[in-house]
Amino acid sequence: MESKNLNGRVLKNRVMKTLFFSATVIALVFLVLLFYRVLSQGWGYLNWNYITSFPAPYPEEAGIWPGMIGSLMLMGVVAVVAVTIGISTAIYLEEYSPKNKLADFIRVNIQNLAGVPSIVFGLLGLTFFVYLFGIGYRLLAGGLTMALLILPVVVVSSQEALRSVPTEVKEASYGMGASKWQTIVRVILPAALPGILTGIILSLSRGIGETAPLIIVGAATAIYTLPDSLLSKYTVMPIQIYKWTARPQEEWQFVAAAGIIVLLIILLLMNAIAVWIRNKYQTRY
Amino acid sequence: MIEMQNKAQTPKNQSTEKKTEKVPNIYEVDDLNLWYGNDQALYEINMDIPQYQVTAIIGPSGCGKSTFLKTLNRMVEMVPIVKTTGAIRYGDQNIYEDKYRVEDLRTKVGMVFQKPNPFPKSVYDNVAYGPRIHGIKDKKTLDQIVEKSLKGAAIWDELKDRLDENAFGLSGGQQQRVCIARALAVEPDVILMDEPTSALDPISTAKVEELIQELKKDYSIVIVTHNMQQAARISDRTAFFLNGELVEYQETDQLFQNPEDKRTEDYITGRFG
């Protein structure tokens, strides 16, 4: 068969390839610019003193310590709450719930929740945790709010992990007279755990960078003591950074940039752990 | 052509049922109907399954033979939309009664699946899985069960030094025999096999077939197979299913040499299926 317009087709392919390549480059360029700006501004201020100091009136003395501890404690609350509720929900939806219209409706809406803007969760947290439950502008209220925020993502990713366990393996367990719970504990959860953990860590790393809902539920913009309980005043890194960038003097921008570096390092560490867990424990069927 | 076969239908084989009376039955299936949603998959199945024999179920794809096998341990209920009517008596109890516990049934009735499905665990943990879920914790007892079961599945000699290896690393034939050992470890009375050799090479198939002959001394075996030669080689009785109906159920020799039903004859002589 005579191929028509061969040169034209080959040329078109080249043009498209170039276009796609340029798109990739644009994304990369901005990422590199971002890193360059943050690193060049913040590197000079980033030292051990910066990490272990409290906010101060002079840029040279300011540090991110309470924000970092606040963020980590907040993530502790979020992890406990979101993990227990999230995994339980996923197990119920995937293994126990009858497969009917109601269950489908619930499933779809949990996915929708994952797309709700974070500020809406902030308003929810303000209404319920801060006022209705009377927790006030405290760490616990922030943690619960943030747990709600990432809960849908935890549920959806856990569901996907549970669903990826092959039916044949479940059948093998049921076929020997195992109850549903025995099958879940001994076969399904161990096989799904790497996927579930990966999902949880990635959700947490989304949570640790969130700012908007915490401003609403009252994370302090500056504190000079460490939070020592769930009912302490607290701040988190993104809010601390936000507060520094709002100051007019140029040096504070550098202090903020150093904070961003710390935040990025923690985020990258969390993602690295997620990847490591996935690679180490993944069972291949 | 199918219409012609339907016209040639002879009355159900009452004559052969009398022959089974000498052997006690492990299952008695009465008027079993089964639907997936609104699609009926099994029609009025009546079938007695004898103890300590190999009963083969043959038929073309989609004839309901696997579905029927899975009704015997109620594994068919893994599909949520399944409905059944009729009764399957195991011992003297109807396993479809509400109060009958599936966990209890599946302890007495083991199953080996089409695709080898070991857990992603060691050979030892695979075989010890069943005893463990039934509450056996003592290491010595478990060791004995594992050894006995692997010997029972004729794979002990091959694997006795590799008990800690992940079962996923074994060959397909070894995996399937580990799965058989895993089923034996619960000490069932019946073993259901759903095309257990269809994913295996001829040598592994021969080993599994040989094993089935060995196992029928202590277990009642029901095996679904798409391979008629296999049914002829290993089974005592054979049931031929077509479009969800039990067309003919006979002594295996009788069914293959002198089928009563025209449709059975057409199937075993390769005219369809």
Automatic annotation (TrEMBL), chain A:
The keyword Nucleotidyltransferase does not apply. One of its GO terms (molecular function) is phosphate transmembrane transporter activity. It is a multi-pass membrane protein. Residues 68-273 form the ABC transmembrane type-1 domain. GO terms for cellular component: plasma membrane. Keywords: Cell membrane, Membrane, Transmembrane, Transmembrane helix, Transport. Its main location: membrane. Coiled coil: none annotated. GO terms for biological process: phosphate ion transmembrane transport. The chain crosses the membrane at residues 20-39, 64-93, 113-133, 139-162, 183-205, 252-277. InterPro entries: MetI-like, MetI-like_sf, Phosphate_PstA. It is found in: Cell membrane. The keyword Magnesium does not apply. Belongs to the binding-protein-dependent transport system permease family. CysTW subfamily. NCBIfam families: 3a0107s02c (TIGR00974). This is Phosphate transport system permease protein PstA. It comes from Salimicrobium halophilum.
From TrEMBL, chain B:
GO terms for molecular function: ATP binding; ATP hydrolysis activity; phosphate transmembrane transporter activity. One of its GO terms (biological process) is phosphate ion transmembrane transport. The keyword ATP-binding applies. Residues 1-14 have a biased composition (Polar residues). Residues 27-268 form the ABC transporter domain. Residues 1-22 are annotated as: Disordered. This is Phosphate ABC transporter ATP-binding protein, PhoT family. It comes from Salimicrobium halophilum. The lineage of its organism: Bacteria, Bacillati, Bacillota, Bacilli, Bacillales.
